[in-house]
Structures are given as structure tokens and as C-alpha cells.
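Field log, afternoon session.

UNIT: design team B
ACTIVITY: writing a sequence onto a fixed backbone
BACKBONE:
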């Protein structure tokens, strides 16, 4: 199914939550309101003509100039061999997006990584905790305003280059 047809189906069922879209360049994408992401994803997975049965990737972006963070969902249908990208914006100071773990269980670890590195909280997640950094690490390293600690428990976090 072509992107225009997929977008029409989504906007037909969710007229108030599907926003901007980009059909022409790279991967086609559409923005979705954070509050509706679970409903939209469930629809995309369960609708027979769409059947997006695979969350191939989920990542975060820091759009510091726009004062927001973004969660990006890459979806694929093995049944119909089409793909779609969803984008959800959330404010930097209160970054909360509902989890899609109940739709695609693979989202569990992907959302934990996004939480760890960007600080986006996924509400109703079953096990939202750091996955890469220690529990007492300060901050979220992939935010553009992140300042690295000089020491962590007395250990320097920066090393001299061995290539000099």
C-alpha cells in the first residue's frame, strides 16, 4: 500500500491526532499526538489492510532549538511489505509518552534505552529503568545540553588520547 493510502486510513480513523507528514523524501512519516500513540499503533497493527506487525526500530531525537524531544517509530508489515514512520513530539521539560510495549513487546528494551539516554518517560511501561548506564548516573547523555561529569565514584570519565 502506498503512503498516501496508509495516511488516509490513519487520518480517517484518527482525524485529530495525525499531524504533519512527509511522503516524498526518504522514509515516509507522519506525526501523531502523544496521547493517541497506543491507539494509532494498535490500529496499524490490527487493521487487516495495513498489518504493521513489526516495530523495526524506535529511537529518540533532541530537537533543542524547538524545545522538544521526539520519539520515532519505524514500522514494517511483513504481510504487505510496506513501511511507515511515526513521530511523536514531547516537551523537553516534561517528556512523557505512553508506552507501545503492549502493541509490540520489542518496545520494552527500546523504550528503556530512550529513557536512559534522552530522559523520555514512557508511561505505563512495565520495567522503565536504565539499561546502559548505572542507576545513579546523573543526566541523559544524548540530550544536546548534557554536560558530562568529570568523575563517577572517583573514576575519571575522560581519558587522555593514546594516539598523541
Amino acid at each position: 500500500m502506498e503512503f498516501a493510502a496508509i495516511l488516509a486510513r490513519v487520518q480517517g480513523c484518527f482525524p485529530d491526532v495525525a499531524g504533519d507528514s512527509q511522503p516524498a523524501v526518504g522514509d515516509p512519516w507522519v506525526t501523531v499526538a502523544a496521547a493517541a500513540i497506543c491507539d494509532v499503533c494498535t490500529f496499524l497493527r490490527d487493521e487487516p489492510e495495513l498489518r504493521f506487525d513489526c516495530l523495526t526500530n524506535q529511537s529518540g531525537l533532541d530537537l533543542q532549538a524547538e524545545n522538544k524531544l521526539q520519539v520515532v517509530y519505524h514500522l514494517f508489515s511483513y504481510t504487505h511489505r510496506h513501511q511507515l514512520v511515526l513521530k511523536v513530539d514531547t516537551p523537553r521539560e516534561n517528556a512523557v509518552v505512553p508506552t507501545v510495549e503492549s502493541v509490540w513487546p520489542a518496545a520494552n528494551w527500546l523504550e528503556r534505552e530512550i529513557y536512559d539516554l534522552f530522559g523520555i518517560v514512557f508511561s505505563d511501561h512495565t520495567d522503565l529503568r536504565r539499561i546502559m548506564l548505572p542507576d545513579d548516573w546523573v543526566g541523559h547523555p544524548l540530550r544536546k545540553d548534557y554536560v558530562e561529569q568529570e568523575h563517577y565514584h572517583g573514576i575519571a570519565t575522560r581519558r587522555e588520547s593514546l594516539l598523541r
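LOG NOTE: The longest helix spans residues 107-118.
NEXT ACTIVITY: expression trials, pending approval
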